[in-house]
Request: fold
Amino acid sequence: MDTSPDPLQRLSKHLAARRRDDIEGRPVVILAPVLASATRHVVQARENGAARILVITWGDGTGPLPEPDRITVHRLAMSPVRDVVDEVRAWQHLLRESDDGVGAVLDAFDPEARAVVIVALALGADSFYERRTYGARSETQERLEDKTLSRELWEAAGVPHAPEEVVPARLDEVRGAAARLDRGVGTVWSADASEGLNGGAVLVRHVTDDGAAAYEALAPHAERLRLMPYLEGVPCSIHGQVADDGVAVLRPVELVMLQPHGSDRFRQAGISSWWDPAPADRDQMRATARAVGEVLARRHHYRGSFGIDGILTAEGFRAHELNPRFSGGISALNKGVDVPEDAESRRLHDELLRRFTRRGADLDAASAFYRPKLRRRGAPPHPHDRRRGGGHGHESDLAPLRAGRGGAAVLRSALRPH
Reply:
């Protein structure tokens, strides 16, 4: 029995043992958008004694691919993908077990139906062709993907948010709401989740006219539309992780959302961890994430990662949507520090991660304390160590582009760090 004094170490060892118990000697099936995204799952399955591995995916993607030994890859046919919503629909089709070819591949690979199925997709599935699934999203996470529910969370948490109205997808009602919300620079319309998860601002429009074109684009995909005023400011996001004993809050990131000149659509151009808001704004964003995380835990029994997108306006941060998952901003932050492989550096890194999970931990202070120690041991400097003061970290010279997001912002930037 493990007698480590650190409860997180005990939990980590317990979960590792459980994972090995579930996988050792059994076939493993991995459902992944692209083969490159399955690489770490393949490594873990091998380390835990998988008998053989099947990856079901749509293509190779970019990045390191799994070593080909003891792995079978089944590539699915996919209709042309125009955006992230098309990709999500393909995932949904797969998880509905609608492809007879997949069933035949599974039965040939695992005729006794003993396989462990790892779902590396942002969707839920209790089972897959009568095989147990791991890693799929919970019903709570799926339900909270509906952005029309966000306002209830903001109000329960007592955090500032943009005004909004949720109305049936009827043109007269939508136009009425737009007239009430418009502050002189238009409104932002977005579809609900009645067709399932959507993202990447695909079903979002910035409306400055009568809204006929936006309505024609959105109404076929929604039962209700959510409207907000267009907000001037910086599109950004704050993330947290809900655990049994509290909420760990990370630092803000910038959402680089561009709006081509003359278009009512937004283009998601990336996520920047170089951006560093003023301390008061950062504190407000982190307080928002902690308050919302506590509501998620208390009211929805939520556990895991989440993100809050919003606009940093002249009046402060205004939340506008919840992403109840391990979203892109967390992935960006996760790549922020390279740690040398010697034992002492790993010990310092692990201690920093433990600080991240403690109730009320100040992660900015923790990283500021440990980063110099890691750097002295050979880790490359963190981008924030090279910054000259605060600010957006971008020079302005892209006049034809405007950036915004869901209630978005005017931000002319060339994405060149100072």
Notes: The first strand starts at residue 27 and ends at 31. The longest helix spans residues 279-300. The chain has twelve helices and 17 strands. The CA atoms of residues 276 and 390 lie 6 Å apart.
